[in-house]
UniProtKB/TrEMBL annotation:
<dbReference type="Pfam" id="PF00067">
    <property type="entry name" value="p450"/>
</dbReference>
<keyword id="KW-0503">Monooxygenase</keyword>
<comment type="similarity">
    <text>Belongs to the cytochrome P450 family.</text>
</comment>
<keyword id="KW-0560">Oxidoreductase</keyword>
<keyword id="KW-0349">Heme</keyword>
<dbReference type="InterPro" id="IPR017972">
    <property type="entry name" value="Cyt_P450_CS"/>
</dbReference>
<dbReference type="InterPro" id="IPR050364">
    <property type="entry name" value="Cytochrome_P450_fung"/>
</dbReference>
<protein>
    <recommendedName>
        <fullName>Cytochrome P450</fullName>
    </recommendedName>
</protein>
<dbReference type="InterPro" id="IPR036396">
    <property type="entry name" value="Cyt_P450_sf"/>
</dbReference>
<keyword id="KW-0408">Iron</keyword>
<keyword id="KW-0479">Metal-binding</keyword>
<dbReference type="InterPro" id="IPR001128">
    <property type="entry name" value="Cyt_P450"/>
</dbReference>
<dbReference type="InterPro" id="IPR002401">
    <property type="entry name" value="Cyt_P450_E_grp-I"/>
</dbReference>
Length: 607
């Protein structure tokens, strides 16, 4: 080919690319979309959005670009509307909830939208609807004596652990939150370490700051040949181990129930209802779905509560005046007793300090994205179907009109008339319920009451037992600073590891805390032993227990066996093998989902 022809061809190709680029640039920056930073075709603003502390950049853009409380940006083709004003969140996520309550795909999870495993991450589908209903029922029914007992019991254990190993406080704090959930869901606090490990595994996997494949999404689709795609391999391992562990829990409870040896817990409650019919089990018809729903419920209560608990320590160490106020209030209201939930109306300062901690250091600072299911026009701007709406909690909670002096810890904003957020009576307010941090509309958090109760009991116990102080440097004799702005950058955050001191408020308080734990632990052991003894004396023969288990298996409308699904899959062996080959990333649940008629996975419902 002649040189001149080559040059002309080159000019033509470059010209064509330029025209494409200009058209794409004009389209992506079209004034029909909400205002926002200038978008680069195909890339959006991925290049200048830091993975670390991403919410600060979102807020910075908001201060420059947001008009009337929202703006738009894009990342690798995904369209985002970032909401920075509560009224806009109300309009888009509550009033228009019918079309704005879906969830986006999380690339580094297998089918987060369509699988029935992780309620908070599911698309707005049938599994989400029935699991949300059932989860809601558990969490609202939870306001009974047994649940209060669990919170008090674990708070006492935590105090004793802090007295014995104060430097281990971050691990013991998380373990306490995990033990509460493991007791409520399976009546077994010894499961807490595994539950917490699972919780952090999933949290990391679903966060933009987790695997790189959540940001550079095309990497996820690399073939799994040799070391090419470690992300899928790691996720499959995590996923399968998590599912197997959840299933073991469910089967373990069922076995104990058959022997009459299972005390009250949410899994037992579920299985008892499932024995009646799938309707009574909320429409859930398989062990796979049931074990996932219950497992997820346990898991979600770990990292969510651990964040504000850690930040409460930061608030108290760095604001000794407020710590002294909380201690004075508890001493006066409880007359030296360890506070319980019944004392809540008399403890407004404690509640204000907890709420202000959550405002000052929100632990889901970006909010959780909702995805739109239809094209929409809002305030004259076009919001296409599939847009991710991000309710930026960091911005809501730093709105100076609602929260004057927003960057500072000011619990008085909840306690003194004259502040925009003050509400009376103080026996009821401040309350955590309804905070923007719990999200919006149809996807609003279901754990608000549990969070409020658990934080009150745990933070109340801390202030009752300890002076929370900075750690003193042994060499210099100076206080080691507790950083207030250092955290991880996962979707749900907690402060980076720091050091502090837990100083018992007096020798008498120290002894009383240890006595309370010894008493509670002995009582718990005795109650468990008595229960087992009664159960064993009731069970006349092992055969009767086996019969009970068999009967349960045949209960109408509820498919207890994953093996039934497996044997159906066996019948479709060739298709299953072919599917597994073509979709190496798919789990066994995916294979079942693709190949079996819905009736085999959901015998009674949703057809
Ligand atoms: C400080 C504590 C917590 C915070 C800040 C928090 C925050 C949130 C947020 C922001 C969402 C998403 C809302 C939305 O999409 O608009 C959510 C959903 C959810 N939360 Fe929480 N949460 C907390 C504690 C808990 C606890 C203790 C539980 C249960 C044990 C729980 C259970 C759930 C569930 C099941 C969902 C999913 C709701 C759905 O997608 O329909 N949360 N939470």
């Amino acid at each position: 080919m002649q040189l001149i022809t080559l040059i002309l061809l080159g000019i033509f190709v470059v010209g064509l690319a330029l025209i494409h680029f200009v058209r794409a640039f004009q389209e992506i920056n079209s004034p029909k979309y909400p205002p926002g930073p200038t978008q680069i075709p195909w890339v959006g603003r991925i290049h200048d959005l830091p993975i670390q502390l991403m919410w600060l950049k979102f807020k910075e853009w908001a201060d420059i670009h947001a008009i009337d409380g929202f703006y738009r940006t894009t990342m690798l083709g995904a369209n985002f509307v970032i909401v920075t004003d509560e009224k806009v969140a109300e309009d888009l996520l509550v009033r228009r909830a019918r079309t704005n309550s879906d969830r986006p795909v999380i690339q580094s999870l297998f089918n987060n939208k369509s699988s029935m495993e992780y309620l908070p991450l599911m698309g707005r589908n049938q599994y989400w609807a029935r699991q949300r209903k059932l989860t809601h029922a558990y969490l609202t029914e939870a306001t009974n004596a047994q649940y209060h007992g669990v919170l008090d019991f674990e708070a006492k254990r935590w105090l004793a652990r802090l007295l014995a190993r104060p430097d281990d406080f971050q691990a013991s704090l998380e373990d306490m939150a995990s033990k509460v959930m493991c007791q409520l869901v399976w009546d077994d606090p010894s499961l807490s370490a595994a539950c917490a490990e699972g919780a952090w595994g999933l949290l990391r996997q679903m966060s933009p700051a987790g695997p790189i494949t959540n940001v550079l999404t095309p990497l996820w689709h690399l073939p799994e040949i040799g070391p090419l795609n470690p992300w899928k391999r790691d996720e499959r391992r995590r996923h399968d181990a998590q599912q197997a562990w959840w299933m073991e829990r469910l089967l373990g409870v069922r076995q104990k129930m058959a022997r009459g040896e299972m005390r009250a817990c949410w899994t037992r409650q579920f299985l008892e209802r499932a024995k009646t019919s799938s309707m009574a089990a909320g429409g859930i018809t398989t062990d796979f779905e049931a074990s996932s729903m219950l497992g997820m419920l346990a898991l979600v209560g770990v990292f969510t509560v651990a964040g504000p608990l850690s930040y409460f320590l930061v608030s108290m160490v760095t604001h000794p005046r407020w710590q002294a106020e909380v201690q004075r209030e508890i001493d006066e209201a409880c007359q030296g007793r360890l506070p319980t939930l019944d004392d809540a109306p008399k403890l407004p300062v404690l509640r204000a300090c907890i709420k202000e901690t959550m405002r000052w250091k929100p632990n889901v600072p970006t909010g959780v994205a909702h995805e739109t299911e239809a094209d929409d026009v809002y305030a004259g701007y076009f919001i296409p179907k599939g847009t991710r709406i991000l309710p930026l909690d960091w911005a809501f909670l730093r709105n100076p009109a609602k929260y004057p002096d927003p960057d500072h810890f000011r619990p008085e904003r909840w306690l003194e008339a004259g502040w925009p957020t003050f509400r009376s009576p103080l026996t009821r307010y401040p309350t955590l319920k309804g905070m923007t941090s719990f999200g919006w509309g149809q996807r609003q958090c279901l754990g608000q009451s549990l969070t409020e109760d658990e934080l009150l009991v745990a933070c109340g116990a801390l202030a009752w037992c300890f002076h929370l102080r900075p750690r003193r440097d042994a060499e210099t004799g100076l206080d080691l600073p507790v950083p207030v702005d250092k955290s991880n950058s996962l979707l749900i955050i907690k402060p980076d590891p720091f050091e502090m001191a837990f100083e018992p408020r007096s020798e008498a308080r120290r002894r009383e805390a240890l006595r309370l734990w010894a008493e509670a632990e002995a009582l718990d052991k005795k109650q468990r032993a008595d229960f087992l003894e009664r159960a064993r004396s009731k069970t006349t023969t092992t055969a009767a227990a086996a019969a009970a288990a068999t009967n349960e298996k045949k209960a109408p409308g509820y498919d207890t066996s994953t093996s039934e699904v497996s044997s159906l899959l066996d019948e479709k062996k060739d298709a299953a093998t072919a599917y597994r080959f073509a979709h190496p990333a798919g789990s066994e649940a995916d294979v079942a989902w693709q190949l079996l008629p819905p009736s085999s996975i959901f015998p009674l419902t949703m057809q």
